[in-house]
Amino acid sequence: MTLQENETAEPKDPVSRCHRILAEPGVASATYEALVAGQLDRGLEHDDRPLSRALRPRLLPAAESRVWAEAGRLVARAARRLATQLVDCDLARAMGAEIVLDHVEAALARLPYPGQEPSLLGRLDGFGSGRDLRFVEYNADSCSCLIAQEPLAHLYTSTPAMRELSRTARIEPAPALDRIVDQLLHAWQAAGEPGAAPHVAVLDWPEGAWLAEFELIRSVFEARNIPALVCTPDELSFSAAGLMARTADGRDHPITLIYRRVLAGDLHYRYGSDLLEHPLVTAAAAGACAVVNPLAADLVQRKTLFALLSDERVLCWLPADEAAAVRRHVPWSRPVIAGRTVYQADQVDLLEFASTHRERLVLKPDNGYAGHGVVCGWDTSPARWDMQLKKALTTPHVLQERVRVPMEHYPYLHDGHLAFQHRIQGTDAMLVGDDVIGCVTRTATTSLVNVATGGDLIPVLTTSPLNT
Length: 468
Known about the structure:
The chain is α+β, with helices and mostly antiparallel strands. The chain has 2 domains: about 15-330 and about 405-468, no CATH class; about 330-400, Dna Ligase, domain 1 (2-Layer Sandwich). It contains 18 helices and 23 strands. The strands form 6 sheets. Strands 3, 4, 5, 6, 20, 21, 22 and 23 form an 8-stranded mixed β-sheet that branches. Strands 8-7-12-13 form a 4-stranded parallel β-sheet, with helices on one face. The protein has a 4-stranded antiparallel β-sheet with strand order 14-19-17-18, with helices on both faces. β15 and β16 form a beta hairpin. α3 (about 25-40) packs antiparallel against α7. The chain is globular. This is Circularly permuted type 2 ATP-grasp protein. It comes from Actinomadura gamaensis.
């Protein structure tokens, strides 16, 4: 093949073909305008910017998607199993690791959730490619992006590049919305069908960044002739008549199923000890409504729990398939506690090891989210790192080994022209019940890959040849 023939040959892989289509005159600018307008029209934005500015989605081979799904399913199951065990016995203290729960958090962890797992809707945040996958966090309490993935995917599949690509490859988005609604209704049935009929409330504060998601899930319920509304915790009341939500029109609406998007930690911060008498908690304890995720999910979300998961003393009592998945896909992690631990079969003093090897470690607050309080050792001076280690001894933190972070070129529009950025790429497995229904990708140019810190949220579409 001559050089000229090679330059004009049609690329075989979907990403290269997509980039070639975007390079055609006017395609990049038209794609950008359609994607931005579509996101703003649907409320798919964060801090007044669209969730994604990339000109193509993440294109994941179907075989690789199946690897992510199986790994995520087993790791999430192991984490939920450990959380249940921690509630039933003092496992953490017996291992010398402290999962710090005050009396309110301990009571929430013990609330009944009949027929349910402690986390039914979640997200495992990870990095990797092929079979080299690492999950670094389990967002098990109330995670964003599950619902936004589907409308984002539909926007991308309607662009010229994706329409052209679909002529030669099968491109499939993850069907999240109906799966989430089905899971919520299943939870209501498992709770004994309180109130005899499902009446849904999507629960969060009005300043939430994901209000478009709330309205979207509400509309899916309404399309099934199931009453649904979006309300705040302050609008709930509970009496002999049941759980009610008083909306802006002054009417009381019965509620028997809550899709809880407000974080348990935010409820605790807002109400303090009074949270145990809040209508949400008392109605859940009385079996008057189903709550998804249950408030016990706050325990599953703790970084300390995820750290315990990688300890051989926990791995030895997990089922063999879950233990194998954790060993392969969860990086070494430890609660920040003075004393000795095991690293790669060697006994080490944890704080001395952390101080000496900061370039390979990240420090995370136990119950943080959106990247708040995360310190990457490789981006930190030795003096500041040691100071942060000392502070981590006063409030619960974990240390986690740095994982290999993949980089990928994504197309953007810069000054009206097609340009490419080399961006860190994270892959998050979306969990509905016991299944991974697909993935979502977040990209950034900094070590913290998070939408709240300026990263992009990009839908993941699986690809396969049309003849398979």
